[in-house]
Structures are given as C-alpha cells and as structure tokens.
Amino acid sequence: MFKVRAFKMTKANKEPSEKQVAEFKESFDLFDRNGDRYITIKELQHVMERLGFKPTPNELKSFMDEADSDRNGKIDFMEFLSVMKTKMHEMMRLEELQKAFRVFDRNGDGKISPNELRTVFQSLDQHFEEEEISEMITVADSNFDGYIDFDEFIALVRSGF
C-alpha cells in the first residue's frame, strides 16, 4: 500500500528540504510505473485509483493541464516538483489561515461571533465602534447566521477587508 505523507516547508525559505525533494522523487517514481521518467495520464489514473480515488476524466485532464508545462502530454520530475511546491504553498497558507481563525474563534465553536471579533481587536489595541463590528460581520456572513465561519473568514481575508 502507498504511504500518504504530509509535506511541510521550512518557514525560512519556503522551499522543500533535500529530504522532501527525495520524498517527492519517491512519490514520482510510484506514479511512473514503467520507469520512463514521465507520468502519463494513464499512470496518474492508475495510482489515484490505487489510493482509493475515482478521478473523472476531467479531473485527470485538469491535473495534467496544471502540471504539464511543456504540453508534451506527460509530466517529468521537474514539472511534478513544481506542482508539489505550489501545493505545499497552498497548504501553508491554509494552515496560517486556520491558526488566525482559531485566534478569533475564542470558544472553539467553529464560528466567530461579534463579541469574539471585538475582544480580539481590543486585545490588539484596535477599538472599533459597534457599527464597524456589525459591518465586518455583515460583509463576511454569506449565510446570514450572524457569525463568521471558516469559509467566510477566508473570503474576508482574501477580500482585503
């Protein structure tokens, strides 16, 4: 059975370590079933299915389109490494957003209340009027429940509010 690993970058240089590159190479070699140093769409499909996923033809094509930068219909190791580095950066950003969300979600219920928002801002010596707090909640609260959940928090942060 294949090992599924979580890869983390060092915060200092945001690049994979030599060990991580070696692990990526090991993963690449698992996909490259015939050893020709390329991953084809068929090899990608085979490994994904062995891992328990049922990718659609569109999902496979989408991954190939993302990874196959020279458009030769197959992925070499450098293309694979480039995609993995991008995925690592995305994972890091998500982890950072999760940490920030937990700072605001003081009671750990998975949503930020107006009171929690106010409390965190006050602890940072940022004082907002009640209307400003309400506006922040209103802008972010896409499901109109009066709270900011994690998805709404991400949208709020990305909007630059």
TrEMBL record:
Keywords: Calcium, Repeat
One GO CC annotation: myosin II complex
Domain EF-hand stretches: 19-54, 55-90, 92-127, 128-161
MF (Gene Ontology): calcium ion binding
Pfam family, one: EF-hand_7
Taxonomy, superkingdom: Eukaryota
InterPro entries membership: CALM/Myosin/TropC-like, EF-hand-dom_pair, EF_Hand_1_Ca_BS, EF_hand_dom
Keyword Zinc: no
PANTHER family named in the record: EF-HAND SUPERFAMILY PROTEIN, MYOSIN LIGHT CHAIN 1, 3
Protein name (record): EF-hand domain-containing protein
Organism: Ramazzottius varieornatus (Water bear)
Annotated gene: RvY_15504-1
